[in-house]
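Possible regression after last week's pipeline update?

I re-ran a chain I had predicted before the update to compare outputs. Posting the input and the new output here so someone can diff against the archived version. Not blocking, just want to make sure nothing changed silently.
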Amino acid sequence: HVGQGLVHGFSSLQTQRSRVSWLAGRQSRIVLTGLSGDEGTSGEDQGRPVEADAGTGPSLPQQPMASTGGNPLQSQPTSSRPPVPIVGEPQRKLDQSYSLEQILKELAAIQQTGPRKYCILGTRHCSFLHQQIIELLSYALVLTGNHIYTSGSQGTNAAAIRGALRGERPELLTVILPQSLTKQPLESQELLKQVKNVVENSKNDDLSLDVASRLCNSKLLVSADQLIAFAFHDSYTVIEASREAQDLDIVVTTLYLD
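New output (post-update):
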């Protein structure tokens, strides 16, 4: 009886193995049949299993190349794809060599603890949050005895004026206008009435505002020890002023709002 039981168990095990092998073979044939069938293939070809090469197993059909209306990523080889652009790090400075004179100037600027003359310039298109930050910065600089130089346009410059006025030290604020006071917007004129030191450039009234602003920025930079600029990457006038300040060996801090 024990021997018959062993024989019966061995036979059952062989039967289960045969069923598993048959089921695995059927699943493979179903998968291969599905791969071989295309939309343009007849019903007979769709139901026909893929023939296998001797000793190599089933040969899978190659996927058709994508047409012009297909996915462009599939139709292009990997090597011909355009490189992914590197986005970010807008304030990263290029590597440059520093001379001994430049290093000594920067060390002297760091060690200087007394009041300084700051020029604050920036874009007119400034959000309310950025204006609050600029106003707070200007207010803090005036409280610590620093002199603020700026222009009279809206946005960044107007926020710098409001912050300096909050410091209640009118002698530490100087506003240089690109043209005469009457050429400024009405909002700027109302704000400038509270400023003690306003320098007009009425000789530039016949010039365009762009040219007059560039001349005004040059005068502001000559009067200051450090420039703090708020700009977008397409704020060409502000960026040009930052480069001019670097040529004048002025410490420049450029904050990009984008």
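Follow-up from reviewer: compared with the archived run. Residues 35-61, 63-76 have pLDDT under 50 and may be disordered. Marking as no regression found.
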